[in-house]
Write a structure and sequence with these properties.
96 residues, mainly alpha, 30% helix
């Protein structure tokens, strides 16, 4: 997505994607418990509870936040997030 020539012309940037060394885990733990609710988040590496809590804290603090879960999707949920309509437009329209 970030190396697509059309996207590179429309959204010029330098994108940095930190990677975790093979021998280290950034997640809360290996084999963390899977979601127990039928049809909810299948990620056993990073359970959705932390994301849900962060969403609720930001919302309660008055933040403008959107939270999307992809039922049945395992750890590579970013593949689905990157396919969201207007993702790049949204991403590059953010400012502080």
């Amino acid at each position: 997505m970030f190396t697509n020539p059309v996207n590179r012309t429309k959204y010029p940037c330098m994108a940095i994607f930190p990677q975790c060394p093979q021998e280290i885990w950034w997640a809360g733990g290996i084999n963390a418990p899977a979601e127990t609710e039928a049809g909810k988040d299948a990620d056993i590496v990073v359970p959705a509870d932390g994301s849900r809590q962060a969403f609720n804290i930001l919302k309660e603090a008055g933040g403008e936040v959107e939270y999307i879960e992809y039922p049945g999707v395992e750890h590579n949920s970013w593949d689905y997030a990157f396919r969201e309509k207007d993702f790049l437009f949204w991403l590059f329209s953010q400012s502080k």
